[in-house]
Structures are given as C-alpha cells and as structure tokens.
Amino acid sequence: MAPFPFLLDALARGRSHWEMPRGEGAPRVYLTSDDGPTPTATPALLDVLAREGAVATFFLLDRHLDADT
Q: What's the whole-model pTM score?
C-alpha cells in the first residue's frame, strides 16, 4: 500500500495509472518496478533494453544490492 494513497489518487484522478504530459521530442515510456535489482529479472531486462537501444534510469535500493549486483 502506498504511504500516501490520497496523493496517488489526486495525481491519477481516480485512474489506475498516471499519464505523463506529452511534450515534444522522442516518445517516452515511464516504468516502475519494485523489489529490484534481482539476479534473474535484472539481466533479462538489461538485455531487452540493449537489444532495443533503449535508455533507462534506475533508482536502486541498498537493501537489494550485494556483491553480485
């Protein structure tokens, strides 16, 4: 559960997702993923991003990092 569900509701206007405002330039997609990085899902995701030539920004949580990640 979100710590501030009322904020999500205000931003999303009752929808299950929030649409980013459209601007000029290349199309963009914003994705979120919880509980990562993982030794199984992260390499597969990186492979897809590389294959498609996509640029990504990751915000990592230290509790999910170890010597293997």
A: 0.50
